[in-house]
Amino acid sequence: MKFIKLLCVLLAMLFACSVLFTGCGESEESKGGSKEDIKAKNDITGTADNKTDDDVSTSDPVGDEIIDSDEEEEYIAEDFAWTFEDGILTISGNGAMPDYESDYDYDQKRIVSTAPWDRYLGDIEEVIIEKGITSVGDDAFYWCDSLEKVTLPDGLTRIGKKAFSHCTRLKHISLPDSLTSIDDRAFYYNYALDSIFVPKNVADIGERAFSDCKYLVKIDVSEENVSFASKDGVLFNKGMTELIAYPNNKSFYGIYHVPKGVKSIGDCAFYGCDRVEAVYMDDGLERIGSWAFDGCYNLKTVKIPANVTSIHVLVFGYANNVEKITFGGTVALWNAFGVAEIENATVHCSDGDI
User: Which of these, 127, 247, 257, 348, has the minimum number of CB atoms within 10 Å of its CB?
Assistant: First the structure.
């Protein structure tokens, strides 16, 4: 009898130990399925080994995910990320930055952008784009009116349309040698910008890329550049046959003589140059593009040679204070151009005045 009681006690102890050891050694699979199932769950929820729910909070999703805290915000997308902290926007990744769009929102009474850092536009003081990013997207920093410093990486090839337009405190920006394209209005209306240096590999500069930069004194170009050239701070094509952009704050005492050999005044070439009072063109000139003198409010005198065969109807735009135009051709030829917005000007032609 005693032997049977002792055997029962031993069996009970063995059963208790078996339950105890099974509970302590429970596998991940027994808790929530296979290891593959657990990994898939973590991928969906964004769980990371070194983060807890208290470390981050997700709000206002743009792209894949926005993670923010009291001090910084991070945008995570494939090969593209950004952080904003203490006025500094840092962008990293590999490949091209997306293109964005901007417009004025009458309800919010401000410029709004599809860029993920939209709500910080007025607070961004410095932009650092790290190596790996190959382009600055359209409208990326449009109307960042507190922006004063920009760092661009070697390997960057494109600056998109209006990318730095209306960055009115940006005084200087260094463009990398890898850059090949500066798109339309890339630096438009950057009042503080005083100079720009076009690197050797730039092959395309869009319309009004540097227009309405009121303090811009010179646009210099690398001597190694095969597409563009600079003379006295004025931007030309490499062959010096087209005047592309005249800096807004270039004075020459208000008088500019277009160099010999120039055949074309490009579209918007003198756009917003309100320090220019007189422009004299050489006999070899053949074409004057659209809006070439738009916004030249102090322009009073223009000399145009007889060789010109093409003058855009809106060549003067809002340069409506022009008083005297000397044209080497005939009255009939001038009338054929149909030049508008010169109601206050007298046109002196070879066979009479208009």
Answer: 257
Edge to edge, the sheet with strand 126-129 lists 57-58, 65-68, 73-77, 80-85, 88-93, 126-129, 149-151
Q: Which part of the chain has CATH 3.80.10.10?
A: 58-216, 224-354
- Are 210 and 234 in contact by the 8 Å Cβ rule? The answer is no
The residues, ordered by sequence, that sit 6+ positions from 104 with a Cβ below 8 Å of its Cβ are: 110, 111, 112
Q: What are phi and psi of 87, to 5 degrees?
A: 80, 0
Question: What's the CA gap between 244 and 161, in Å, rounded?
Answer: 17
This prediction's pTM: 0.78
Q: Which CATH number fits domain 58-216: 3.80.10.10, 3.30.160.20, 3.40.50.720, 3.40.50.2300?
A: 3.80.10.10
Window from 45-49, 83-87, 192-196, 281-285 with minimum mean pLDDT: 45-49
